[in-house]
Amino acid sequence: MTDAKILVIDDNKSVLSALEILLQFEYKSVQTLFNPNQISSFPKINEIDIVLLDMNFSAGVNTGNEGLFWLNEIKKKSPNTSVIMMTAYGAVDLAVKALKQGASDFILKPWNNERLLTTVKSALELRKSKQEINQLKKKEKGLKQVINDDKSHIVGNSKALTNVLNLVRKVAKTDVNVLITGENGTGKELIARELHRLSVRKDEVFINVDMGSISDNLFESELFGHLKGAFTDAKEDRAGKFEAAHQGSLFLDEMGNLSLQTQAKLLSAIQNKSVVRVGSNKPINVDIRLICATNCNLNQMVADGLFREDLLYRINTIHIEVPPLRERDDDVLVLADFFLKKFATKYDKQGLRINNLAQEKLMEYQWPGNIRELQHTMERAVILSEGNVLKPEDFLLHSKPSNTFEAELVTLDEMEHQMITKALDLHDGNYSAAAEQLGVSRQTLYNKMKKLKR
Questions:
Q1: Is the dihedral of CA 301, 170, 329, 336 positive or negative?
Q2: Which DSSP symbol is given to 140?
Q3: Fewest Cβ atoms nearer than 10 Å: which of 127, 224, 327, 417?
Q4: Whole-model pTM above 0.70?
Q5: What whole-number distance in Å separates Cα of residue 11 and Cα of residue 59?
């Protein structure tokens, strides 16, 4: 016996009895209604799997309009319930009309028992399919929310940032391709996510791809997908990033790192709005909002023959330049306060504040690493803080950033030396506590001290 709930609605009590007897041996619950007006007050009609509904209830009327009316009423209350229409007056146009309005099938009276049971079984499978689809849609929506749930914020109110955000708001509602440029650490990905958040695609996925981390031989597989057996490690069919971003936004970061060969393949996908999986010759149409980013001067790369001019035109319908932190006025202090609160909460050091001299030091610094450098600076200061007030000496900054690799190593050594010294002083020379504070093992701390000749 199938675990399903059946409801039969007919003004002929003989029909109700016959169907109840036929169906009760096949289905767990079979209920009947003699008067269709009871549908409005029927308890938990959304839990009914199948409704067998007569199309004519008034004497001498055989238009089927009554049945269509009650069909609509049932569908309003329970959209996924499968409704099978029944009538003694068969007409093709009436059957078509019922199906268009949501009926799952149509049965003529008198019926064939085997055919009726088959029709009910098919309608039940349709009901289950709709339930599964709804569950999958809910899961998909939940997954998209998780994927799009980025807790990073665009913080600041400087004129330079306001101009960028005004442009973002204008462009977001369109589907034009956007190129975001700016120095490392300026927050290009945040701008891309803001474009997605304000777009008509906001409920779909935002897929982020670091183009600099993809080797040429894996480029097509990663972006366009592959079929099982297409190459040695292709053990199953796999969709690429373009397919994954279908109906959403695709963010291609570090565009300046692409080789000319991969640029040509990318250009083809963008132009055709379709991709072909590795090992296949069947194009798959994709509907994406393309957002690209780079810290390179693509115009200069075009002049040097390192970047395709036609690809640049394709990705550069709208150009957004993200300003460096040194051009954002008081945003330095706004961001510093934002990161201070964030890391004070993370490391349980509530009540921290930055004194005036330290604020002046932060404002005077040029921040070559931009927001990313400020974030790391604030985290380090919070971790190593000894009191509730952060002073200038708590911020390890370098007024003259080195341009050479050798000098950069010296700078890192100096920074490491200061951090270790401060951690040891904070914990009265306790190596285990200092190592835990710095996030390294005790042996690693010993080795670093030996290297620094301490």
A1: negative
A2: H
A3: 327
A4: no
A5: 10
